[in-house]
Amino acid sequence: MRIAMAQLNPIVGDIAGNTQNILHAIARAKDQGAGLVIFSELAVIGYPPRDLLLKPVVLEQMAAAVDHISRQCVGITALVGFVEQNTAAVGRTLRNAAAFLRDGAIVAKGYKSLLPTYDVFDETRYFEPAPQLQIVPFENHKIGISICEDLWNDEQVVARQLYPVNPVARMAEAGADMLVNLSASPYVMGKNTFRRKLIAHQAQRWKLPVVYVNQVGANDELIFDGNSMAVDANGRMLAQAKDFQEDIVTFDLPARDTSQELLEPRQGMESLHAALVMGLRDYAEKCGFAKVVLGLSGGIDSAVVAAIAVEALGRESVLGVALPSRYSSEQSLIDARQLAAALAIKLDVIPIEEVHHAMEHTLEGLFKGTQPGLAEENIQARLRGNILMALSNKFGYLLLTTGNKSEIATGYCTLYGDMCGGLAVISDVPKTMVYPLAHEINRQWVKAGRQAPIPESSLKKAPSADLRPNQTDQDSLPPYSVLDAILERYVELEQSAQNIVAAGFDELTVRRVIQMVDSNEYKRKQMPPGLKVTSRAFGFGRRMPIAQRYRPLVIG
Amino acid sequence: MRIAMAQLNPIVGDIAGNTQNILHAIARAKDQGAGLVIFSELAVIGYPPRDLLLKPVVLEQMAAAVDHISRQCVGITALVGFVEQNTAAVGRTLRNAAAFLRDGAIVAKGYKSLLPTYDVFDETRYFEPAPQLQIVPFENHKIGISICEDLWNDEQVVARQLYPVNPVARMAEAGADMLVNLSASPYVMGKNTFRRKLIAHQAQRWKLPVVYVNQVGANDELIFDGNSMAVDANGRMLAQAKDFQEDIVTFDLPARDTSQELLEPRQGMESLHAALVMGLRDYAEKCGFAKVVLGLSGGIDSAVVAAIAVEALGRESVLGVALPSRYSSEQSLIDARQLAAALAIKLDVIPIEEVHHAMEHTLEGLFKGTQPGLAEENIQARLRGNILMALSNKFGYLLLTTGNKSEIATGYCTLYGDMCGGLAVISDVPKTMVYPLAHEINRQWVKAGRQAPIPESSLKKAPSADLRPNQTDQDSLPPYSVLDAILERYVELEQSAQNIVAAGFDELTVRRVIQMVDSNEYKRKQMPPGLKVTSRAFGFGRRMPIAQRYRPLVIG
Q1: Which among A19, A336, B165, B210 is least buried, having the fewest CB atoms inside 10 angstroms?
Q2: Which residues of chain A does B544 touch, with a Cβ-Cβ cutoff of 8 Å?
Q3: How far is CA B41 from CA A379, B47, B127, B150, in A?
Q4: Among chain A residues, CA nearest to B280
Q5: What's the pLDDT score for residue B257?
Q6: Residues A267-276, buried b or exposed e (16+ Cβ, 10 A)?
Q7: What pLDDT score was predicted for residue B464?
Q8: Separation between Cα atoms, residue B412 and residue B477, nearest integer Å
Q9: What mean pLDDT comes out for the span B257-263?
Q10: Domain map of chain B by residue range?
Q11: Is-contact B129 B93, C-beta < 8 A?
Q12: Is B396 at the interface with chain A, CB within 8 A?
């Protein structure tokens, strides 16, 4: 039996477009001799569809699309993920479904059993779990259908089983001789290595081949890396799809040739870089933007985002804007110019002195007798935001924000100022990781025979917001190496102040950092979507109250 | 037996403060002769605690608080809502719990069975359902413990049962002779009437008294109206707590006096008004702001928000700012002044001409040869936002946004402009409802012997953004009566374009409105929290993808 894994990049909600893409993949799989082509989770609508699922018309369209696809399945069977109405009288109204389609009919159906409802996942908001497991006879096989999370609740793999059942174990015990998993598993650095181990483990534990088809492409905050794969009953790789791009891969079961070379999916900074490039490209394209604009401060964050934008959309589609103020160092503008030249992008230089002066004059009476401080600094950042948004509105650019995770965590950024934009490209990349990412970008450009785009000066100089004379980030923040270590413990690992201090960090610094994180939820509430690359990103997967008074105190 | 209902206003996460408030209520209940005092759902941490629950130290603090409270329960028993670790080896790590506390011990415990995960609710993100129902012997009663949603899954009441069990039915059948419900049921216009019917129905159906203790106070988007109540086995009211304020009410079971007068909770505009006043006050106070600032355009929206702010915080705590531009009509400033005078608040007038001119000059070269349009209009709104935020930053005001639901739905508002602010007070009030709300405010002020604050002119004139000469809202939008009717169908009822057209609306208008709603998710993603008063508000309870291409088309 020849099987195709169709790793496609759907646009969320674009049922008509996704259906066309699915039909093309079916035709290609058929051309390649496949008898079965397998798509990813919810392939018809794209993952995650969120509250589009509350629109009855969307469900009707999805049913029509599945019917339409089934009529094109002649000489080949397609296993397609979609959402179905729950026909039971009681319970949530929907199911996360997968159907075998052939000759105008739904030949067999399976449903998702384990519905992730944590981090960025909200599946029990919509779905009822599978009423029973589904083992589908296909040619000489008995295929156990599972969807994404169904594969993960293995007591030998996870620290805690969130669900009382293990659908894989049940299907193996019930006689499945092959396991298929339709997935939409978002990218997190290092996760693909874990996934490969998990899939090999399942194959070896249950002694059956596993076919894992993952979504690819980015949707809002979530980046799906693809990396679909099939392994035999010994966990040996039979076929692999590429990372960060659409791919259709066929393989034979039993394998004709097990001597093939393994693809090595990208790791570390290389994978982070590829993820962000795809994340930016997909967000822009799926929102209908052909070009982007961003402010170039001369610092490393905007340099990295500019390089990623050029890689994602091409240099003609990127406009850099330098917005020098009276406090900007000369070096800032030199670095911005050098970056723009190396990236070969257009650079507009728009000094903000005139509007800055006019704003000061406008507020003079009201501010008389006060000391210059944050209010005055924020004014400049907001005037820059206003100018960049004016360019966005006038010429149709998507404005990118360039803040990193460390800044956003501590609120070291100006709401309606440098936080203006449609996408926060590196909002989940801590400052200490921006540097190796920048080096990786430079390395790749040099390897491709081009000039390293990110200026040495941006890599070397002390970070500064340039909002008052001789300002540096370290006037307001602990050294980034210390800050990021504390933030990882507090934000990603949910450790308490006490735990972090016990690990050897200075107590006053820890308290100060935590206070900054907690008191800036209101800013993050209003930030644009940011590309998630760590296990816990600010955004949809981290839901903190704003009007709250959590204090790390023991009562009594 | 004498029972006290303690309807308190917790601050989310403030375990120490909430515990003190609970202890005061216990002391008061004891003074009033109660043997049992009942608190609302999650009273120790406040509802909704969201991802604060992912912090292990919060769980430890909560356990310590429950222990501390139990030691103060001498001569009285307290039934208190909190969150507990799930001690089972498998499943989500927490439970939504209620404990009978007395003499330093947890005498009995119950858990929530039905975990709402829709709209603004995320409970399966955190909790496992109750492993079994809990009927607790207390004096001569057998009390069935239920928590909020547990009361609602009654096939005689709801259109669809979301859950396969009805815990109330089970407890009644298992011999409970009294039902207690600890609740955190958010305000929606008209919901209290439904709640009263539901509770009377449960009492009559199962022939047992029902004691319903609801949270009061606002937390971020959610307003809890209180309206706690106890009914006898015939559904007759035994005791009622006030709406929109803390209250402790005692009653005897069996009732000594059933001739008492019924409170009539506020309805319609009166209740909406009370809800918004409490919503604004609590958000400001719980975020630590003593005063607010807002732009006064002379229009009805900002007038209504200003009046609500004065009612919530007092006139000394409210600063109005008029920000006239070259396009502002004279009447706009006259109306703003009249409003400020009637409210007796300070009004600063800050013309934006100088900064507007400077910004035009700054962008002149880049904008040469283009037609003035949205970009130029947004610049003015953003300069106003910049000035208001400068005042906020400099003097510590909470900036209020004044956009209504119709504007926010259609994107007829400027991101980083008039959308700047910490709280969107009327973001869930459609424009056609702003008028009756304004009349209600004027009526109440007149009734209290004061001048009606909202100027006749603001109530009568055609709404305008004043961003170009002679602009009115109806240049860009359908008449509000039509717009709001379409929006209600599309946003609140999730009807399709086809359905709405079939109901008699003009097809082009319907398509245009839907297109405006769908293409402005990116703005709403970045809006401040808005007070929820309808069944479907923009914000946490409506989760739409941004990079999506949902189109109301049938494929095939």
Answers
A1: B165
A2: 50-52
A3: 43, 7, 14, 12
A4: A547
A5: 67
A6: eebebbbbbb
A7: 87
A8: 8
A9: 68
A10: 2-257, 287-473+521-525, 478-519
A11: no
A12: no
Taking each helix axis from N to C terminus, what angle separates A374-395 and A353-367, rounded to the nearest 10 degrees? 140
Q: Which residue of A has its CA nearest to B281?
A: A547
Over range A546-553, report the average pLDDT: 80
Is B359 at the interface with chain A, CB within 8 A? Answer: yes
The CA-to-CA distance between both ends of chain A, in Å, stands at 68
CATH topology of domain A2-256: Nitrilase/N-carbamoyl-D-aminoacid amidohydrolase (3.60.110)
Whether A11 has a pLDDT exceeding 70, the answer reads yes
Compute the distance between CA of residue A205 and CA of residue A157 in angstroms, rounded to an integer: 11
In 3D space, the residue among B267, B275, B237, B260 whose CA is nearest the CA of residue B5 turns out to be B237
Average pLDDT over residues B274-292: 98
- Mean of pLDDT over chain A: 95
- H or E segment and range at residue B415: none
- Cβ proximity of B391 and B321 under 8 Å: yes
Percent of residues, chain B, with pLDDT higher than 70: 98
The two structure tokens encoding residue A396: 């149709």
What whole-number distance in Å separates Cα of residue A429 and Cα of residue B484?
42
Determine the CATH number of domain A272-467.
3.40.50.620
Residues of B whose CB is below 8 A from A554: 61, 64
If we measure between CA atoms, which residue out of B76, B71, B84 comes closest to residue B45?
Answer: B84
Q: Is the pLDDT of residue A554 over 60?
A: no
Gap between the Cα atoms of B138 and A477, Å rounded:
56
Q: How far apart are CA A489 and CA A482, in angstroms?
A: 11
Distance of alpha carbon B265 from its chain centroid, rounded?
A: 17
Q: What is the DSSP letter of A430?
A: -
CATH code 3.60.110.10 for B2-257: yes
Lowest mean pLDDT among A33-47, A260-274, B15-29, B58-72: A260-274
- Residues in A touching B499 (Cβ below 8 Å): 57
Measured between alpha carbons, how far is A307 from A314 in angstroms, rounded to an integer? 10
8 Å CB contact of A286 and B420: no
Task: Measure the CA–CA gap between A299 and A295, rounded to whole angstroms.
Answer: 10
In which element (H, E) is residue A266 found?
none
Contacts of B528 in chain A (CB under 8 A): 522, 525-526
- Using a CB–CB cutoff of 8 Å, tell me whether A348 touches chain B: yes
**Non-local CB neighbours of B309 within 8 Å, separated by 6+ positions:** B280, B292, B294, B317, B318, B400, B425
Does A359 reach chain B within 8 Å, measured CB to CB? yes
- Residue B555 pLDDT class (50, 70, 90 cuts): very low
pLDDT range class, residue B552, cuts 50, 70, 90: low
ipTM score here? 0.96
Neighbour tally for B376: CB within 10 Å = 20
Cα–Cα distance for residue pair A145/A110, rounded to 1 Å: 6
The residue to which tokens 């174990």 are assigned? A169
**For position B553, what pLDDT does the model report?**
53
pLDDT band at B410 (very low <50, low <70, confident <90, very high): very high
Is CATH 3.40.50.620 correct for B287-473+521-525? yes
Q: Is A61 an 8 Å CB contact of chain B? A: yes
Q: Average pLDDT over chain B, rounded to whole? A: 95
**Token output for B518:** 């769908």
Which of A291 and A262 is assigned the larger pLDDT? A291
Using 50, 70 and 90 to split pLDDT, how confident is the model at A171?
very high
- pLDDT tens digit sequence for B179-224: 999 999 999 999 999 999 999 999 999 999 999 999 999 999 999 9
CB atoms within 10 A of CB B57: 18
In whole angstroms, what is the distance from residue A105 CA to residue B288 CA?
61
